[in-house]
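Q: My hope is that you can spare some time for a protein that puzzles me. Underneath my words sits a plain record pairing an amino acid chain with its backbone structure tokens. Those tokens are not coordinates but codes from a learned vocabulary of shapes. Thank you; the sequence and its tokens follow:
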Amino acid sequence: MSEVTNPVRTDNLPPPDDAFWKGIRRDQFYLEPDIAFLQGGSVGPSPKPVVDRVTEAIRAFDSDPLKHQQQYWPIVEESREKLAKFVGTRPERIALVQNTTMALSVFAQGVTWKVGGEILMTDQEYGAVNACFDYVAERHGMTVRRVHLPMEITDKQQIIDVFKSGINERTAALVFGHVYWSTGMVTPVKELTEIGRERGIWVVVDGAHAVSMVPLHLDEWNPHFYASSLHKWTLSPKGTGMLFVSDDAHDRVEPLILGSSAHPNPNASRFDMMGTRDQTPFIGLGTALDFQQEIGWDHIRTYCRGLVNYMRERLGRIRGVRFLTPRDPEMSGFITTFTIEGADLQKIRQELWDDEKIETVAFHINDVPVFRISTHFYNSREEIDRMVRAIERRL
């Protein structure tokens, strides 16, 4: 396994400087040096120690599959324990699944729905989330009520009021994002969960972007279900995700895949993907958590917040730029979404890649064209400067 050659940070050491982070990028990632990868919100690059750990585990497994199949289970359970501690819960409440889509499907396909009920969501949910619950609603004679979530929000009470406005006597489930894929806005999970629970409504959180971006306290918040993909900000192997299942929801949902999961099991591992599967990604998950822990979660968040603030300052000089991500650090993380009046953002995005090797993403939110820039600790101010200059040349 690749060793972390940069110095390990601890709380009693001063914050790392720019040279430290550049060294991490250079020595600990397989990213091409000429690519500015500002698209980790879709899929993140796993560090070398994670890639090497998984590669070694695959090779070892196939040297004696039956032996290693037994030996790998305790390592996977150790990863579950590390993850549970990191997100503020017990390992018994964590299912290890492939991604957020699979995690949400456990809830959507596993609970008992009633004809005439409503699933409350916003008009900014992710495409796969919309598809999932539109299907469920049509199949079970229900409807999906989508409330309008303003693209520019400055106060968490605005978010709370949006959801409260959509709840009625038919509401069966409240589904919302923790960190919205569209604007990067961070929602008040604790308050929204309390609202749903007080009304006897299922509370389901799409946390695809949240783990390793913002602190989680799942036992304290206690939604019924919390789903996340760990290949984004945790930088774990692709095909690693999690589902938190509250104690009072466990016996009210059926497993998505039947097999050994059909037997009684008080733990959320019942909702893991069953049958023979490659366990090595979940071995790599533990390594990914260790990797960032060695650097220091507080150091990572401080650096990433600094990158976001720097990018807002640089982009803010461009005429016509309007930010859709809240400035308040309690309502934002490492995603910056903005629009530029009169600009063809899709064309610019393509040229940034074709001409400059700058990886970004552009899309529409309710007919408004936007750029979404994702910055992690493998990025730098120089890359941000490079992106801003490239955009300026095309306006």
About this structure: The first strand starts at residue 36 and ends at 37. Residues 65-87 form the longest helix (23 residues). The radius of gyration is 21 Å. Confidence is low (pLDDT under 50) at residues 1-11.
